[in-house]
Amino acid sequence: MIQETVATGYKRYTAAENKKIDTSFHSQIDNSRTVSMDTTVIIESGLAVTHTDQDGHKYINQYMLLDKLGRGNYAVVKLCFDTRLYKKVAMKIMNKARLKKLCLGKDKTAYKLVENEVAIMKKVCHPNIVQLYEIIDDPKSNKLYLVMQYIGGGTLLQRIKQGGKLSADKCWNHFRELVAGLDYCHNVAGIVHRDIKPENLLLDENDMLYISDFGISFMIENGSDESRATLGSAYFMAPEICKCANYKGRQTDIWASGVTLYYMAMGKLPFEATSQSKLAHAIINDPYFCSRLTNDVGSHFHRMPTPR
Questions:
Q1: I need a labelling partner for 114 at 20 to 30 A (CA). Which of 74, 81, 135, 217 fits?
Q2: Which positions ≥6 away from 307 have C-beta within 8 Å?
Q3: Given a cut of 50, is residue 120 above it in pLDDT?
Q4: Which residues are catalytic?
Q5: Where in the sequence is the domain holding 223, given as residue range(s)?
Q6: Relative orientation angle of helices 156-163 and 249-266, to the nearest 10 degrees
Q7: CA end-to-end distance (rounded Å), the chain
Q8: Any idea what DSSP says for residue 69?
Q9: How far apart (Å, rounded) are the C-alpha atoms in residues 202 and 57?
Q10: pTM for this structure?
Q11: How far from 143 is each of 93, 146, 215, 259, CA to CA, in Å?
Q12: Same domain, yes or no, for 243 and 203?
């Protein structure tokens, strides 16, 4: 069974173009499931066919598995080639039984976390956010596959570790792209990311930045983005999270963006500590760390109002 979900918010096409795309989609959606991956249509497939060709290449449906891109706590991410659309994609492969057994807290499993991530990725469509293309969830298979946009330039973290701090212009360009994606999440899609950091920001071959990994994100309900959960990466946590107090999710995303800007500009994190408690103390007692940015970077932001 195949279903379609249309991401709301940012529109890449005119109404006439969207109608043409939609007509094309329905005319092609048979066993081949062909659809343009430049649209906002997300396919949900209930059939996963695995096979190996005569040259030893492994496939999941029409996707030829290539190199391993990475491994997380719950998934392996592989580079794939879509043999129907002749383009590279990224495929996140997860074991459903393992996800359901992995307890992350009271009444919460890793599977619930993945379900939340999928629900959020269905809602987003923006040029600075990694796009979800297809969900393959075969009830007869123990694997869950998420097919996503492939961003081939690595992470912002890798870029800085390899090449050092970025120029003022690069910092400004990437920060604008990050803020554009976050503004869309916060004010259009109604989502708080909760884990903004260089490791979750991808760069393409044109050096354009994309927000990825919505694993611990949450949806804003009834206009409220308040939370008390201590989630995210320690060095990017806002002071109010370190105080174990209630916090506004959108504001903590902005704080993490500021820490990311500092890392881009300085090539190092603004806070250093030998323990979790000392790190929290440093963050709580240095809320104006961005004032330490070098003059050439700081000059780009001198007219900006207080961000939080």
A1: 81
A2: 254, 258
A3: yes
A4: 195
A5: 156-301
A6: 20
A7: 46
A8: E
A9: 27
A10: 0.81
A11: 7, 10, 18, 36
A12: yes
